[in-house]
Each structure stands twice: as C-alpha cells, then as structure tokens.
C-alpha cells in the first residue's frame, strides 16, 4: 500500500542552526512530492514540490528538498532556521491509481525553535 | 484574491444532528478535496472530486457525504454526526491537468468540529 512516513514527530533546533526533516514514501513509481507548512490556526501552505528533473528543488522561505530515488526519500532542509519557522511540516505525495488521483500525507513533524 | 473559503470555522453540535460544512473556491479549479486532521495521524483524505458530478472516496469516507453540483462548491455533509468525527477539517482545491496532474493544492483555513 502507498504510504508516507515522517519518522520525527517533534524536532527542536536553535535559531540559526541547520534543519533537516525526513520523509520517506512507499510507491511503485516516482510520485509527485510536496512539502507543506502549517502555522498554528492556519491552513497548509506549499513550500516546494518535485515532479521530475533536478533532484534538488528550491522552495519559499529559504527551504530546499532533495529527492533520492534509491532511498525513496524527499528530505526538507534549511541552512539557518529562523524563529518564525516554528510550525508543523507535512510531506505529501500525489499519485495516480486506477485513473484517479489521490494525495497521501505524512503524519507531520512539529518544529520548535529555541531563541 | 485567490482563495478557498470554508464555513463555519468552528462548530459545536450534538450527536445525530445533520450538519454541512461548505467549501467554495474562486480559482476555477477542477479538483477539490476534503481532509480531516487528527493529532498523530496527519491529514487523511475523506472524499475528492475531479470535476462536476465526479466524486470518489478517499481513505476515510465512512460517515460523510459530498456533492459537486457546481465547479466552485464542494460541501461536506455529516448526516448523523458522532463524537469520533470531532476533528479539524480542511477543504483544498487544485487545477487538474489530466491523469498525471502535478498541481499543488490550495487549502482553506480549516473548520473545527466538536460533536458532543
């Protein structure tokens, strides 16, 4: 069955430190991959997406993600975290099955930033 | 302004009392979807629609109904709500480019439902 795994439920980093959030997927082909961010009381905002081509994709707010086919991973990174990055982050895949199109989300990683 | 609008934002109601959560988008998107978000479970897709009069079940459709009579609207109906449907609900929409669509979704701000 298709699935998305975010192994880290909570991550705490100091402001200015680097960040990596992990995401692994299970799917027979290369899916469409997304990272979303959810600030408290808000809906989800797209950070970046990967469909094909260059495996390192740039997104908004200084985030980037790297697709590694051999590891079925799509990890999100940021070189220097800001206090405003504290939020919950969701990895998602879009996939086609039997002529329909579905999204599957991971369970999320909540990021806390220490001043 | 491009947006997905959900109403109500908050609702407290009782078991068995039918309710409808409305969702409207002004981007002429073909694809619309409903999710519920629960702690530790992330977002789970309830129903989705690829165009007018075309709907399909997601991963957790039990206890919910949807309709897509107009392109812009995609209401979520709970005919007989139960406490296990207490959750945070999100509506989302996106362009639909065909079978291998790669469009990201635009989300509403969420509806928090409490079923007593």
Question: Could you describe the 3D structure shown?
Answer:
The complex is a heterodimer of chains A (115) and B (116). Chain A has strands at 3-5, 10-14, 19-21, 24-26, 32-38, 44-50, 56-58, 64-68, 73-78, 87-97, 100-105, 109-114. Chain A has 115 residues and is mainly β. In chain A, the strands form three sheets. In chain A, strands 2, 5, 6, 10, 11 and 12 form a six-stranded mixed β-sheet that branches. In chain A, strands 3-9-8-7 form a four-stranded antiparallel β-sheet, with no helix packed on it. In chain B, strands 2, 4, 5, 6, 9, 10 and 11 form a seven-stranded mixed β-sheet that branches. In chain B, a hairpin with a 2-residue loop joins strand 5 and strand 6. The interface between A and B is medium-sized, with 27 and 28 residues.
Topology:
The complex is a heterodimer of chains A (115) and B (116).
Chain A: E1 3-5, E2 10-14, E3 19-21, E4 24-26, E5 32-38, E6 44-50, E7 56-58, E8 64-68, E9 73-78, E10 87-97, E11 100-105, E12 109-114
Parallel strand pairs in A: 2-12
Antiparallel strand pairs in A: 1-4, 3-9, 5-6, 5-10, 7-8, 8-9, 10-11, 10-12
Chain B: E1 4-7, E2 10-13, E3 19-25, E4 31-38, E5 42-51, E6 54-57, E7 65-66, E8 76-78, E9 87-94, E10 106-107, E11 111-115
Parallel strand pairs in B: 2-11
Antiparallel strand pairs in B: 1-3, 3-8, 4-5, 4-9, 5-6, 7-8, 9-10, 9-11
Descriptive terms for the model:
heterodimer, A: 115 residues, mainly beta, six-stranded mixed sheet, four-stranded antiparallel sheet, 57% strand, globular, B: 116 residues, 0% helix, 49% strand
